[in-house]
Specification:
With 65 residues, this protein is of the alpha+beta class. The protein has one domain (3-64). It contains one helix and three strands; from the N terminus they run E-E-E-H. The protein has a three-stranded antiparallel sheet, covered by helices on one side.
Length: 65
């Protein structure tokens, strides 16, 4: 039976936000991947609180998937 892992990455440099989704699959003791599922960039928007930024990034992923 295969093991699967999905990795969501949001990189924000203050100008742009890059959203990346990768899937990894484990078969026995081998790991296959990453398979790129999404790679999108958009303009960054200022957020004062880290908690708000985290929520906004999660919403961006949900909206695009």
């Amino acid at each position: 039976m295969a093991r699967r892992k999905i990795v969501f990455t949001a990189e924000d440099d203050g100008h742009t936000v890059r959203l990346v989704v990768e899937e990894w699959e484990g078969i026995g003791s081998s790991q296959v991947g990453p398979e790129l599922l999404m790679d999108q960039s958009m303009m960054s928007f200022p957020v004062s609180a880290v908690e708000d930024w985290r929520r906004d990034m999660a919403v961006l992923f949900v909206e695009r998937l």
